[in-house]
Amino acid sequence: MSLAEPIRGVRGGGASGAGASGSDMSAWENFLRSPSTSLRLPGKPPIQLATDRVRAKPAVTPQISMMIGMTAIGLGVWGTLFPRSVKRTFGIAAPTAAVLATFGAREIWTGFKLAEDPTRTDVLWARVGGDIFDIAVLSALARPTNPKAGNARMALGAVLAITALDVLTATRMGAVQRNRV
Questions:
Q1: What is the mean pLDDT of the chain?
Q2: How far apart are CA 92 and CA 84, in angstroms?
Q3: Alpha-carbon torsion 25, 28, 32, 37, what sign?
Q4: pLDDT 10s digits, 85-96
Q5: How far apart are CA 24 and CA 18, in angstroms?
Q6: 4: buried, middle or exposed (CB in 10 Å: 19+, 13-18, 0-12)?
Q7: Before 58, cis peptide (omega within 30)?
Q8: What is the spatial distance between Cα 40 and Cα 66, in angstroms, rounded to a whole number?
Q9: Which of 65, 103, 160, 178 has a CA between 20 and 30 Å from the CA of residue 5?
Q10: Contact at 8 Å (CB) between 12 and 20?
Q11: Strands 36-39 and 47-50
Q12: Rounded to the nearest 10 degrees, what angle do helices 83-90 and 61-81 cross at?
């Protein structure tokens, strides 16, 4: 049996529906729809193929969430290990400990939580809350009297784009259905 051969008795109904006519579905389409499938090759023992147990539409959303988490870890390391650099870059007059706590620790926490489980919508919505705080701070830093206002405006644009991505990802991950094992 090849991957393109239909599996008898499995009802079609996947998003693509390509190649599935009536009650026939190819092994590849079955694999894409279900968390696991067996491939039977002539003269060989069956091979069990499995996908992750999380189903999202589209399936790229968990990867985006993971990338958001990795980026957050990088920003958190910068804010935690080099808070004076963050202050210099944006012209922040706050105490170093405040920068470390509000930017570094928060980003590291959300980053590790998303790396641990990219489907955590509570963490994604916490990121959105943190993004709103960042937007407020960067908007205040973009004032003309700040010599680093250009850096703050550039960071503000990036945070606005990241906020949109965070909201989109949190919304999509909220619709994830987990398969029971």
A1: 77
A2: 9
A3: positive
A4: 999 999 988 888
A5: 11
A6: exposed
A7: yes
A8: 34
A9: 178
A10: yes
A11: antiparallel
A12: 100
